[in-house]
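Late entry, evening session. Most of the bench is empty. Finally got around to the prediction I had been postponing all week. Sequence below, unchanged from the version circulated by S.P.
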Amino acid sequence: MKKIIVFGASSSSTSINKQFATYAASLFTNSNIEILDLNDYEMPLFSVDKEKNGIPKEAHNFYAKMGEADLLVISFAEHNGNFSTAFKNLLDWASRINAKTFQNKPALLLATSPGARGGSSVLEIATKRFPFQGGIVLNSFSLPSFYENFDIEKGITNEELKKQLLEIVNSIEITND
C-alpha cells in the first residue's frame, strides 16, 4: 500500500486547492492517504536573522512528512500569479534543513482557481521549481473555473476534465506499482 501525502498549498480554512488535492488523491487505488493542513506548519516569516535562533519544529515536522511519502499530491493556490505566502514560507524554512526538501519523491502537481486559467501560472512555476527542491514531477493538471467544474460530493463534474485527470492518475499508478 502506497502512502500518499496530500495538501493544498494554502492556509485558507476553506481552501479549494485542499479540496481538489484530496479528491485527486482519492482516485488512487490501494493507497493510504494523509491530508496535511498548512496551518499546522505556521511559522514566523523566514529570514536569516530569525534562522540564527534555529529552524522551527514545524519545518522539521513538514520535512519528515515529505520523507514518509511514496507519492505527493499537491494543489497550489495562486496568489498574484505565484505560490501562497504560507507555502513559500514553509518551503523557505524546510529548504534550510535540506535544499532537496521533497527528498526525490514522485509528485502529482495540481492547481485550481475560480478563474478560467485554473491557477496555471503557479502550476507552471511549481513544475519548474520542484525538481530543484528534490521533487520528481510525474505530471500536472490544472482545473479551471473550480465552482463550475467541481462538486464536493461528486468531484469533477466536467466529464472531459474528469477523464483527463483519471488518465493522469492511471498512468502514475501503472508506472509506480
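Two things to note before I forget:
The chain has a mean pLDDT of 96.
The longest strand covers residues 135-143.
Will write this up properly tomorrow.
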